[in-house]
């Protein structure tokens, strides 16, 4: 691969990682001054969805009741709060460093897929922010973006890696 393409893949990986890291850190440290992050508000009030022509108060998301039930369960909300914050920070750090990139890319795509289904916002079309982040994450996982200026490239050169072939599904 040419140096330009390798740098472009690394830059895309780092940019997506920075977006995830910032989102997680913002939730933990409340940079915007909005108060402590709590997924309950989103789960109970922002999962009705939207489609072109629907009323603002219409519930068009077929999974809405599921998300509301999670939002009303204190134990589930507590777990979701931790998973979202830790997931965003962990994915962000892994992508920035190019460490366990395939795993981080798939984890990012799964997280964005869940956000996409929960949000169900198609008022401006089906290709929203969560869709795009998820698509980029899948591409980064498939191309093994950590092999381009990432820690995965260094790890893959070790004897340990050559004796542990299953790690090819995690690194890259």
Overall description:
By secondary structure, the protein is mainly alpha-helical. It has one domain (3-50, 58-169). Helices cover 63% and strands 0% of the residues. The chain has 8 helices and no strands. Helix 1 (3-29) crosses helix 6 (129-143) and helix 5 (101-119) packs antiparallel against helix 6 (129-143). The longest helix has 27 residues, at 3-29. It is elongated, with a radius of gyration of 18 Å.
Produce a short descriptive summary.
With 172 residues, the chain is mainly α. It has one domain.
> What is the average of the pLDDT values?
92
- Portion of residues in beta strands equals under 5%
Helix-strand string: HHHHHHHH
Helicity, in percent? Answer: 55-70%
Report the count of strand segments: 0
Please state the overall shape, judged from the principal axes of the Cα atoms: elongated
Structural class: mainly alpha
- Can you summarize the main beta sheet? none
Q: In total, how many domains does the architecture comprise?
A: 1
Count of alpha/pi helices: 8
Features:
single chain, 172 residues, mainly alpha, 63% helix, elongated
Detail the topology: elements first, then pairings.
Elements lengths: L2 H27 L9 H7 L18 H8 L2 H24 L3 H19 L9 H15 L7 H5 L3 H4 L10
């Amino acid at each position: 691969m040419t140096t330009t393409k390798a740098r472009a893949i690394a830059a895309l990986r780092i940019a997506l990682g920075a977006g995830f890291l910032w989102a997680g850190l913002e939730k933990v440290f409340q940079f915007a001054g909005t108060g402590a992050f709590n997924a309950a508000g989103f789960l109970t009030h922002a999962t009705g969805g939207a489609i072109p022509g629907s009323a603002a108060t219409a519930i068009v998301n077929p999974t809405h009741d599921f998300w509301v039930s999670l939002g009303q369960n204190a134990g589930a909300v507590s777990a979701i709060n931790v998973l979202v914050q830790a997931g965003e920070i962990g994915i962000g750090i892994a992508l920035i460093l190019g460490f366990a990139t395939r795993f981080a890319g798939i984890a990012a795509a799964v997280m964005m897929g869940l956000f996409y289904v929960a949000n169900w916002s198609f008022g401006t079309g089906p290709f929203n922010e969560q869709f795009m982040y998820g698509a980029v994450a899948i591409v980064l996982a498939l191309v093994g973006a950590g092999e381009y200026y990432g820690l995965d490239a260094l790890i893959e050169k070790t004897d340990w890696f050559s004796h542990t072939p299953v790690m090819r599904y995690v690194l890259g």
